[in-house]
Amino acid sequence: MSDLTVAERDRVLAKSALFNPPEATLPDGRRELVGLTREELVAELATLGEKPFRAKQLWHWIYHQGVTDFARMTSIAGPLRERLAERFVVGRPTAAEVQTSADETRKFLFRYRDGQEVETVYIPDRHADRGAVCISTQVGCTLSCRFCHTGTQKLVRNLGAAEIVGQFMAARDSYGEWPSPKDDQPRLLSTIVVMGMGEPLYNYENTAKALRIIMDGEGIGLSRRRITLSTSGVVPMMDRCGEELGVNLAVSLHAVTDELRNEIVPLNRKYPIAELLDACRRYPGASNARRITFEYVMLRGVNDSEAEARELVRLLAGLPAKINLIPFNPWPGSPYLTSTHEQTAKFAAILNDAGYSSPIRRPRGRDISAACGQLKTESERGRKAVA
Ligand code: SAH
Ligand code: SF4
């Protein structure tokens, strides 16, 4: 990596830290245990004079069994359970709203202790015995992609590691999927896509901490192959993500020229297409068996011509890639229309002919509230109407 990239990465990290949430401590002084690393958990227990094996036991109760009440942690002696309950909590975000769509998609609006809210969505697989949890990493987003509803909400703050892990754990509560299934057992919440609100690589430290907890084999135990992180293209952070986390990468490309991408994904002005694709070429772990997903939202008459499909093929030459064509989800006031089925099919055919897998993502959960970021706005509007 060049010195310039390292300097840019440090600048991104320093800026991101300004948006971190307050300490995960309750008004009564109790400390949140969810979101601590194993080392941090050992250190917390040491303040009670407890040895490291207690942290191992607690980890098991919290992340394997999914237990939130110390009284139920029966391998720990009663008096210690009481002391733990005085000092600590094992919390969850509050589900301010839960909506289940006719197609079984379930959307949660989670509220944190300071009242901030984000969305988490469970998307069942066609076979319905497994599915993906789409988690958020920030309240709002600093990047204003023109087609994205979250982009119209200014960034309020980053989510902390506890708040990111908490979305997955609360979704699991909702499906009763505790204790954590073994890796070879079927599970409903079988994959994670970091594709909710916010830009995960602008909240790298907290996202990385949360994903490490989720990947820990003695707890939730989802392997890195079951996790996909989506970025709009924060180039200086992509190497670290690959080296340190090794999760699957998805890149929100959406346009094949800098001119158009500058307009619809303004981050492109900082990190243009050529630089972004270079970062993809060197993404550790990318191979034909583990392709990079390129997301391409289909905007009618904007980016969906056959010439653009051919240019996309040319741009991605040599990259282990698959392309996810996403029908645009309109939201009130959005400046675009979804491409027609016919045009999307023509676009997909060109990609398929060039050997790319290019599934057209089925619109999910349309009847509960279409675009990401919308449930939150509806909830705020509802509250204002009541007030
Ligand atoms: N900030 C990250 C991850 C969150 S957005 C990123 O941009 O990749 C997740 C995906 O949803 C992105 O590919 C984004 O472009 C897409 N998306 C956002 N708004 C959309 C909409 N209204 N319709 C369809 N896809 C949308
Ligand atoms: Fe932010 Fe992603 Fe939406 Fe762009 S698409 S505004 S990066 S959440």
Automatic annotation (TrEMBL):
Any further remark recorded for this protein: Reaction proceeds by a ping-pong mechanism involving intermediate methylation of a conserved cysteine residue.
Gene for this chain: rlmN
Descriptive protein name: Dual-specificity RNA methyltransferase RlmN
Broad class of the protein's primary localization: cytoplasm
Active site, per annotation: E119 (proton acceptor), C372 (s-methylcysteine intermediate)
Keyword Transferase recorded: yes
Superkingdom to which the source organism belongs: Bacteria
Chemical reaction(s) catalysed: adenosine(37) in tRNA + 2 reduced [2Fe-2S]-[ferredoxin] + 2 S-adenosyl-L-methionine = 2-methyladenosine(37) in tRNA + 5'-deoxyadenosine + L-methionine + 2 oxidized [2Fe-2S]-[ferredoxin] + S-adenosyl-L-homocysteine; adenosine(2503) in 23S rRNA + 2 reduced [2Fe-2S]-[ferredoxin] + 2 S-adenosyl-L-methionine = 2-methyladenosine(2503) in 23S rRNA + 5'-deoxyadenosine + L-methionine + 2 oxidized [2Fe-2S]-[ferredoxin] + S-adenosyl-L-homocysteine
Organism of origin: Paeniroseomonas aquatica
Cited function: Specifically methylates position 2 of adenine 2503 in 23S rRNA and position 2 of adenine 37 in tRNAs. m2A2503 modification seems to play a crucial role in the proofreading step occurring at the peptidyl transferase center and thus would serve to optimize ribosomal fidelity.
Cofactors named for this entry: [4Fe-4S] cluster
Cofactor note: Binds 1 [4Fe-4S] cluster. The cluster is coordinated with 3 cysteines and an exchangeable S-adenosyl-L-methionine.
